[in-house]
Design brief:
The structure holds 2 protein chains of 2 kinds. Chain A contains 26 helices and 17 strands. By secondary structure, chain A is an alpha+beta fold. Chain A has 3 domains: 223 residues, Aldehyde Ferredoxin Oxidoreductase,  A, domain 1 (4-Layer Sandwich), CATH 3.60.9; 180 residues, Aldehyde Ferredoxin Oxidoreductase Protein, subunit A, domain 2 (Orthogonal Bundle); 182 residues, Aldehyde Ferredoxin Oxidoreductase Protein, subunit A, domain 3. In chain A, a hairpin with a 6-residue loop joins strand 14 and strand 15. By secondary structure, chain B is α+β, with helices and mostly antiparallel strands. Chain B is built from 6 helices and 5 strands; from the N terminus they run H-H-E-E-E-E-H-H-E-H-H. The chains are: A alpha+beta, B alpha+beta. At the A-B interface, helix 8 and helix 9 of A face helix 4 and helix 5 of B.
């Protein structure tokens, strides 16, 4: 690591954080400290630190836990929303921003990472992040405009879906008499950006999400329910600042170099052609696409959900995130028939699985309509589909009787039934009241063998990349701080081959997916780098897949003015990974939680992965040694001190 | 060996039909040993032409013969091969990707072809 330059005003950052106390109706801002920025970079680097600070009241007793931890769906659960230094920069694949709180779904550290436009707009309005505490006694929304924030009444918005909420707030900002808006500043009335919850968040569905610009969703771990408990319906933000990079000339040179990389990359061209559904056929070759609650390898209707059918039936148009030329998002419409809906965001790969193959629903129009319902109602499609598949499996096994809830459960392949169940979950009606708890809590309520049908780790439903095809994903799911997650590092992209990082020794060699040896080192390194990359800096794991580590670090340096090298950014990543893991430990996670459910590791009898199953014991043993985790799962003191987390070590008592 | 396999694929209507729908002309250029094969899907039937270096192909695929051999067993990580340039694909990517569902049944056919033609020793288990 080279000598650090003393940058006092790093570029790329807005330079301030907004603190909102909903209980008291108070708002204040604090400036960004350059040393803090260098050490934690941004995104969940900032978010985990602010969150830990807000937990301080839980540690003020003699036993350090006297006051207990906040209920995830209670008023005291702190919520953080943080952008990275790159968020909003005029480059491809850097529109990402992050949210975090104690998860209503898992009870552990919860987080989500999202693109779209909100993060860039927040920085243009003067803030790198928000820390929201307390709860309002009545529905409110937070209005932020060019360095000023205020809470406004949201009674008229409560009950609206996310699309209607966004429309109402944009309209209100342009016609300020409505909703108590103030007179707009003179000049352009370009609409701002809205982040909101739908009825699912209001009804405290534990996998409710936050939605920006319709299809840009902070989906995982139930952050929508955190807002619902706070009676925070939405945030409207509008800003007019342009954030200057520290080294615009160097950034321009890098941008020109990357244009050629993006033009030449077959991976990017595939994303441009089909969006994330391009993974459907590529994944099928490798056995990476789960079917029928992870228990089926071959399905004769598989191609009905593939990119060719998508093109033919859904008439997709490309859309994108702020400043990104990859344009991997899809906007679709169905003009007639039982699943008709107006043009709006189309299903991503994960949703094609969750509401499609996982439930053996081969009707792509039904999948698209269910996706539209999830976006409007504010539900995470991954947990929603996985919870529904769990219910179908339990129903078939005689473990769950939907009539106990005065309801029926859709059959496998019932597209219309799937759409209807999505709506009942959001409204907590009938069986939807149970399923709105998420599959792990629902299984605990049902009891018996219901837990055998789960596909969760630490209470979070697994996303749809199969550990039987890529053994390392089994480890990634098991040890991820937020529960089963393919985004907590870049391991999936390295193991599946889309990302090539020759500068990092453990990630340089070609990888055989269906072996377990060596995967611990690969995933530890990918967590360090990936946490820097997407959790902190603001890179998108998809659009940023083509960047070398050298290019990624250069971009951060050109924007911020810091002089990071690869060692230092991976140390930042490691520090923040331990922060996340430490927060989940504070909430009770232990080594026994670092396990996969049987359905994810049961070898299939046919298909590309026939007979393959990850050696979890080997990978966990190697990973625990590399990460210096104790037998109970907690990090050792020296591991935490090495990355400067003395306070976390003390709080964990290690 | 691979030319014979392509001819077998051409003789199976259930596989050939979707390939013909693509209307593509694909040139496979293998090295070590050096082999060129054109698979022409632009006519009424699949035309497999070993050694054709003159036809203008829509899609050009270059790789080592060993990678191609493993690919037809479904043993090559396609993304990894493309990213690390073990396979170099030139041509319209959407059309190349559209071939993936069409060639799925060939993975089962390839070991069968090797067995039936005296190439058992090349079968990868």
């Amino acid at each position: 690591m080279g000598a650090r330059s003393a940058v006092t005003h790093p570029g790329g950052y807005a330079g301030a954080f907004l603190f909102v106390d909903l209980s008291r109706g108070e708002i204040r801002s604090e400036p960004l400290d350059a040393g803090f920025a260098r050490r934690y970079l941004g995104g969940l680097g900032f978010g985990t630190r602010f969150f830990l600070e807000q937990l301080a009241p839980a540690f003020d007793g003699p036993d350090r836990r006297r006051n207990g931890f906040p209920d995830p769906v209670g008023p005291d659960n702190p919520f953080v929303l943080m952008a990275g230094p790159l968020t909003g920069a005029p480059m491809h694949a850097v529109a990402r921003w992050t949210v975090g709180a104690r998860s209503p779904l898992t009870g552990l550290w919860g987080e989500a990472n999202v693109g779209g436009f909100f993060g860039a707009e927040l920085k243009a309005a003067g803030y790198d992040g928000l820390v929201i505490t307390g709860a309002s006694s009545r529905p409110v929304y937070l209005h932020i405009e060019d360095g000023r924030g205020e809470l406004r009444d949201a009674a008229a918005l409560w009950g609206l879906d996310t699309y209607a909420t966004e429309q109402a707030l944009v309209t209100a900002a342009q016609t300020p008499a409505e909703l108590g808006g103030h007179q707009p500043a003179r000049g352009s009335r370009r609409p701002g950006q809205v982040l909101s919850i739908g009825p699912a968040g209001e009804n405290l569905v534990r996998f409710a999400c936050l939605v920006n610009h319709q299809g840009h969703v902070a989906g995982r771990t139930g952050m929508g329910a955190v807002w619902g408990a706070k009676r925070l319906k939405a945030i409207y933000v509008r800003g007019s600042r342009r954030l200057a990079p520290a080294h615009p000339d160097r950034l321009a040179v890098l941008r020109a170099e990357l244009e050629e990389v993006y033009r030449e990359s077959i991976v990017i061209e595939a994303l441009r052609a089909f969006g994330t559904p391009t993974q459907w056929d590529i994944g099928a070759v490798m056995g990476d696409v789960p079917m029928r609650n992870w228990s089926q390898a071959v399905w004769d209707r598989f191609d009905d959900l593939g990119p060719l059918t998508y093109e033919r039936k859904l008439a997709p148009r490309a859309r994108t995130c702020f400043a990104c030329g990859v344009r991997c998002k899809r906007e679709v419409e169905i003009s007639s028939g039982p699943f008709a809906f107006p043009r709006g965001p189309g299903p991503e790969y994960e949703t094609l699985v969750s509401l499609g193959s996982l439930c053996l629903n081969s009707d792509i129009e039904a999948v698209a309509r269910a996706n539209d319902a999830c976006n409007r109602l504010g539900l995470d499609t991954i947990s929603c589909g996985a919870t529904l598949a769990w219910a179908m499996t339990c129903r078939d096994a005689g473990i769950l009787d939907p009539s106990d809830y005065g309801d029926t459960c859709p059959d496998w392949g019932d597209g219309a039934g799937t759409v209807e169940m999505v709506e009942r979950i959001a409204r907590r009606e009938g069986l939807g009241a149970l399923l709105g708890e998420g599959s792990a809590l629902a299984a605990a309520r049902v009891g018996g063998a219901a837990a055998d049908c789960l596909t969760t780790v630490k209470g979070l439903e697994a996303p749809f990349h199969d550990a039987r095809a890529f053994h390392g994903m089994g480890l990634a799911y098991a040890v991820s701080p937020r529960g089963a997650c393919h985004m907590s590092g870049v391991g999936y992209w390295v193991e599946s081959g889309g990302m090539y990082l020759p500068e990092i020794e453990a990630l340089a060699e070609p990888v055989d997916g269906m072996t377990s040896a060596g995967k611990a080192a690969l995933h530890a390194a990918s967590q360090d780098y990936g946490t820097f990359f997407s959790s902190c800096a603001g890179f998108c794991n998809l659009g940023g897949m083509v960047l070398s580590a050298t290019q990624a670090v250069a971009m951060v340096n050109h924007v911020t003015g810091f002089d990071y090298d690869l060692d230092e950014v991976t140390e930042v990543g490691r520090r923040v990974w331990y922060m996340k893991r430490g927060l989940s430990h504070l909430f009770g996670a232990r080594a026994a939680d670092d396990q996969l459910p049987p359905l994810l590791v049961t070898a299939l009898e046919e298909g590309p992965t026939a007979g393959s199953t990850p050696d979890m014991s080997l990978m966990l043993r190697e990973f625990y040694a590399l990460r210096r985790l104790r037998p109970d799962g907690l990090p050792s003191q020296d591991a935490l001190l090495e990355v400067g987390l003395d306070d976390l070590a003390e709080l964990l008592g290690v | 060996m691979l030319s014979g396999f392509f001819r077998l694929v051409a003789s199976r209507p259930e596989i050939a039909r979707p390939l013909l729908d693509s209307r593509l002309i694909i040139r496979f250029t293998y090295s070590d040993p050096d082999v060129v094969i054109v698979v022409d899907c632009s006519g009424d039937s699949l035309d497999v032409r070993p050694g054709d270096t003159t036809t203008k192909a829509v899609v050009d695929m270059k790789m080592k013969a060993e990678i191609a051999h493993r690919f037809w067993f479904g043993k090559v990580n396609l993304m990894q091969a493309l990213t690390r340039r073990q396979m170099i694909a030139k041509g319209p990517v959407p059309k190349i990707l559209q071939l993936l569902p069409a060639i799925k049944p060939t993975y089962a056919l390839y070991p069968e072809y090797l067995r039936d033609n005296g190439f058992e020793k090349y079968i990868i288990y």
